[in-house]
Amino acid sequence: MDTEYPVLGSKEHQIVYWEEDIDVAVIGGGHAGCEAALACARLGMRTILFAMNLDSIAMMPCNPNIGGTSKGHLVREIDALGGEMGKNIDRTYIQSRMLNTAKGPAVHSLRAQADKARYKEAMKLVLEKQDSLWIRQSEVVYIDTKNGSVSGVLTAPGGYYPCKSVIICTGTYLQASCIHGTYRVQTGPGGMQAACGGLTDCLRDLGLPLRRFKTGTPARVDGRTLDFQKMEEQKGDEHIVPFSFENSPDAIRRPQRSCWLTYTNERTHAIIRNNLHRSPLYSGDIRGIGPRYCPSIEDKVVRFADKERHQVFLEPEGDHTFEYYVSGMSSSLPEDVQRDMLRTLPGLEHVQIMRTGYAIEYDCIDPLALDHTLQIKQVKGLYSAGQFNGSSGYEEAAAQGLIAGINAALSIKGGDPLILDRSQAYIGVLIDDLVTKGTNEPYRMMTSRAEYRLLLRQDNADLRLTELGYKVGLISHARYSRFLRKKEEISQEIERLENTCLSASAEVNEFLNSLKTSSIRSGVSLAELLRRPEISYGDVIAMGDLAAIERPHLDSAAGEQAAIQIKYQGYIEKQMQQVEQFKKLEQKLIPQELNYEEIPSLRLEARQKLSKVRPRSVGQASRISGVSPADVNVLLVYLEQYRLCKK
Amino acid sequence: MADQYNGGPAIAAISTPAGTGAIAIIRISGRESIEIVDAVFQPADKSSLRDSPSHTIHYGWIVDPQTQDSVDEVLVMLMRAPRTFTREDVVEINCHGGAYIQGRILELLFQSGARLAEPGEFTKRAFLNGRMDLSQAEAVMDLISSQTDLSLRSSIHTLKGGLREKIDMLRGGLLDLMTQIEANIDYPEYDLEDVTLDQIQKTAAAILEKMEDLWRTAESGRLLKQGIKVAIVGRPNVGKSTLLNALLREQRAIVTDIPGTTRDTIEEFVDLGGMPLHLVDTAGIRETEDVVEKIGVDLARRAAEESDLILMVVDAGMELDGEDRAIFQEIRHKQYLILLNKTDLTAAHSADEFAAILGDPQAREHILAVSAKEEKGLDTVESRIRKLFFDGTIAIGKDPLISNLRQKEALRRGIAGLRAVLRGVEEGIPQDMIMIDLTDAYDALGEISGHCVKDDVIQEIFSRFCLGK
């Protein structure tokens, strides 16, 4: 039998047996892998998801929450496109909060604490139940290609799965090592087995640009050893907003858990400073590139030496465990130092560590090697998503997984790819940033990265993307009809507010005065009143009722949409004009075979960068660092010449 | 592709070569160019371009719509798409050649909605709209890259050192504010100091005030290192620095009685009744053994060579010597005026006699009598310069003029952005929306100083604040 099947790759992996043909193999069962596999299977692809350990499916090895600023936007976008993350956190949240409510609607951000165990269990069940999807505990060690296209994958035990597409979602598992103090061990996150069976070599042999990144996580502690009396309580919201547009608040209401806030102090900092020499970050033992936005506590103490205290949040990890996540104390200091520094925090004097904080290093790809569909440019049918692409965060991973999954399936089915641009979605910003600008540290989504964030609100993700999700085939007919109804309601409500006049009655003026806004002398439209900063949509409704103005019964989300669109009309229109400008260059596509070396008027640096990134549009080209406005103009003229020559 | 270019946003630029000719042509192309010109053009026959047939010529005046001041008497050519150079609607304004006038007309066009054409943009549009032969593509691309290069270089040179610092300081102030706002948005739960609307108001108002100051200096021509380059030459101690100071009406150059104290050239910018003058006071042109002074003399000679107009200062109380004659020989083929200085003291000769001594009868009409010390006769000097300038006899280079306009335009946008910020604060608009206008203002300032870094704010957030799990 050994002689019958060939060996593969420089590592001479032996094919032991042949499996049935499939369409898509997803490598990894984290947040990217789950969305990728579900999207493929739901689009009718025969799909297998491989994970090092099936208990690691949808695992949250770091913070126990989903969402937050800009990440919450990503989750709602995933939901609008037909992904699973929003639904799954709605099933398993133990606290829900809308952040930034004191600021404008564009930056309101939804965040939920998850019951980690239930989150992954629920997601695993969704995968199990999904038709056309199989999940398999096995390590993929080799990706086979023929003529530059994916042809199959081989697992460590020797099973060969012929397939058309592969989606790499290896997260932080590839050649992973975890480090605290001088202790270094070759494991993936949370002590899971690392993927060291040869996939890295295979990818390197395929010519992919690999690199090594680093991230970290704080300790988990025993809640029974915490004194919450000494901390500030942070409760969940009374009125919750579900992540999924398919859920109503009432349907998912449940008792919520609290998080707790405490602070570091000078004693904490002294312990850290006195033990810096024992940190692998400072001894040079860790060379991977870590994220700026997620610094370890030792980093914070060194870089912000004059800050007297740092916030620390204690977050429950679930309903059926005493474990708490110590947010703000990410560290790779030795265990004894971690223990000693934690015990200086008010409320943690007697704390018992359950899991030590650690830094983790892993192999990933330079995302400039990808195109906007998240396909690796050099190998047809090879896609990648999540932390392997140099991002960080569950939500960033899930968003990429969904897009990679959709595009892998669409490519096999022969449809147009799904590419979201920067004016459509945070997902578009995320992917465009990664594949255009690349990243030198694990990339985190931030609202400040989105140029058109007033248009990319979390509340209107469905209005922006449901249509696309429906076209792709991930949104059901029933959901689409409900969506169209909501859209109709919004435009009717806008029309009603614009065209309904409120006359200057004593009652109305009394109400206006109570809101500390000027009274009206003659009839004013409801929309006009709503544009006043002091007046909310609820106030307008109340005044309408005072004047006995009839109004239709509306879905509250539809009313909210109508109100936002009226209230911030000026700013929204301004951004829409900017988007119109932006789209012009975005729609000028560049033929992929273009040889930039043949355009002598481009500056050398521009020629090199363009050859590397191979932008899909002139718009993307303009965002590459090192491509000047003059280069863009030269490119426009060259493209026109090229087009005419082709004719 | 061509369709998208047909009717691009209106662009305007001076399309005649820099600094020459009594007449200049300003070209406008693109969507609404006809309406834009209509807004600033009053035809003698009271018609409007909008209602006129294509390929017609109209006589009238360019008038500032705000002040109703007449700027210039012009001929306007109306050419409707597609039979035009760019295949878009094109209007060409034939105006007088003075740079000041060209600049004013361009500014009025910008105020009415046109924007300054990028280098090579008319040609680019002509090409993209299929107006040109395919074989010309290479030339168009070369034109774009070389002209951009040129304008980039000239715009960098036109920034006065102090101005760059000022702009950078203002940008720094804005960046600081933006970083605080953004950090608060992205990290709402961290104990960062909340940015209050009051704080935004104060910072924005302070920066706006400084920008408006800059705008006023820009209006009076001091924003950029440009203008009509006027060199003040003459042998030592004839009163060049005193003259410069009189023109500036401020004591900047060292004025002493020791020959050769002006070791280096002193450069100043002055607005002479709407004319931007770039005054260069040179060290005395003198053959000398003094090494340090020799550098000064070299500088002086070079400045004289590069100038648009030379003011030769002569001490009226002294006989002309060989040096004076040598200097005169250097400048007589350029645009020059000879200023007989120190006429407050006894003059050695009359203007006619000086002309005769110089051996050039034509020199007589270039000679003006002044007293720099008592500020007498300066009005005559000013009006003579103005005449030379407005009839186009002397002109400044086009590139600095263009970059000046570009920078002024950016400054105007920056000011508009900050005003919108203040309006937003007044109306209690959420901070994340105010950021839209703050970003506009910040980007506009960046254009002036030539910065265009996009990720400034994110960089700043992480270097200034301690954030993250």
From TrEMBL, chain A:
SMART domains per UniProt: GIDA_assoc_3
Gene Ontology MF: a single term: flavin adenine dinucleotide binding
Binding sites annotated in the UniProt record for FAD: 28-33
UniProt main location, coarse: cytoplasm
Keywords recorded for this protein, A-Z: Coiled coil, Cytoplasm, FAD, Flavoprotein, NAD, tRNA processing
Location within or outside the cell: Cytoplasm
All residue ranges annotated as the tRNA uridine 5-carboxymethylaminomethyl modification enzyme C-terminal subdomain domain in the record: 566-637
GO biological process, alphabetically ordered: tRNA methylation; tRNA wobble uridine modification
UniProt xrefs under PROSITE patterns: GIDA_1 (PS01280), GIDA_2 (PS01281)
GO cellular component: cytosol
Pfam families referenced in this protein's UniProt entry, alphabetically: GIDA, GIDA_C_1st, SAM_GIDA_C
Listed cofactors: FAD
Transmembrane segments annotated in the record for this chain: none
Cytoplasm as UniProt keyword: yes
Residue numbers binding NAD(+): 290-304
Coiled coil: 480-514
SUPFAM superfamilies in alphabetical order: FAD/NAD(P)-binding domain
Physiological role: NAD-binding protein involved in the addition of a carboxymethylaminomethyl (cmnm) group at the wobble position (U34) of certain tRNAs, forming tRNA-cmnm(5)s(2)U34.
Quaternary data: Homodimer. Heterotetramer of two MnmE and two MnmG subunits.
Protein family (similarity comment): Belongs to the MnmG family.
The protein's name: tRNA uridine 5-carboxymethylaminomethyl modification enzyme MnmG
Organism: Bianquea renquensis
UniProt gene name: mnmG
Automatic annotation (TrEMBL), chain B:
Primary subcellular site in the record, as a coarse category: cytoplasm
GO BP of this protein: tRNA methylation; tRNA wobble uridine modification
Signal sequence annotation: none
Cofactor(s) needed by this chain: K(+)
Binding annotation for (6S)-5-formyl-5,6,7,8-tetrahydrofolate: 27, 92, 131, 469
Keywords attached to this entry: Cytoplasm, GTP-binding, Hydrolase, Magnesium, Metal-binding, Nucleotide-binding, Potassium, tRNA processing
Residues the entry annotates as binding GTP: 237-242, 256-262, 281-284
Residues of the TrmE-type G domain: 227-390
Cellular localization per UniProt: Cytoplasm
Pfam families linked: MMR_HSR1, MnmE_helical, TrmE_N
Cofactor note: Binds 1 potassium ion per subunit.
GO cellular component annotations of the record: cytosol
The EC number(s) this enzyme carries: 3.6.-.-
Enzyme class: hydrolase
Binding site for Mg(2+): 241, 262
UniProt record similarity statement: Belongs to the TRAFAC class TrmE-Era-EngA-EngB-Septin-like GTPase superfamily. TrmE GTPase family.
PANTHER family, A to Z: TRNA MODIFICATION GTPASE GTPBP3, TRNA MODIFICATION GTPASE GTPBP3, MITOCHONDRIAL
Function of the molecule: Exhibits a very high intrinsic GTPase hydrolysis rate. Involved in the addition of a carboxymethylaminomethyl (cmnm) group at the wobble position (U34) of certain tRNAs, forming tRNA-cmnm(5)s(2)U34.
Annotated protein name in UniProt: tRNA modification GTPase MnmE
Gene: mnmE
